[in-house]
Design goal:
The protein is α+β, with helices and mostly antiparallel strands and 105 residues long. The chain has one domain. 46% of the residues lie in helices and 11% in strands. It contains six helices and five strands; from the N terminus they run H-E-H-H-E-E-E-E-H-H-H. The chain has helices at 8-13, 19-26, 30-38, 68-78, 82-89, 99-104; strands spanning 16-17, 45-46, 52-55, 59-60, 63-64. A three-stranded antiparallel sheet has the order 1-3-2. A two-stranded antiparallel ribbon has the order 4-5. The longest helix has 11 residues, at 68-78.
């Protein structure tokens, strides 16, 4: 696999912003974006190489969707794995394999 090919996570979650991209998108500073990720105002996903990603799926009608922070706080009570939170937020589309099909592979 080359660095240009999407990972399974990237294909599943869809596009993500970097800190810089998210700051530009929201009109915030990069510091504000990182604080938003840390205080659960935004869904921030850490990578193994210390890059933070912000899935586009947290936007609805051009803004971060209402009550995202409340949902992330609830998720945090179940697991601290932010990638799992992102998975829970990702809708399963009709062409996606069912959970049973995923388990068989």
């Amino acid at each position: 696999m080359t660095g240009e090919e999407p990972t399974a996570w990237a294909a599943h979650l869809g596009p993500c912003y970097t800190v810089t991209g998210m700051a530009r998108r929201l009109g915030w500073t990069e510091t504000d974006v990182l604080e938003g990720g840390n205080d659960l105002t935004l869904l921030m996903l850490p990578t193994d190489d210390d890059i933070y990603l912000f899935p586009v799926l947290q936007f609805k009608d051009g803004t971060v969707f209402d009550r995202l922070d409340e949902m992330l706080i609830i998720f945090q009570t179940m697991t601290h794995d932010r990638w799992m939170w992102a998975d829970w937020m990702t809708p399963m589309l009709p062409e996606d394999p069912s959970p049973e099909e995923v388990e068989r592979t």
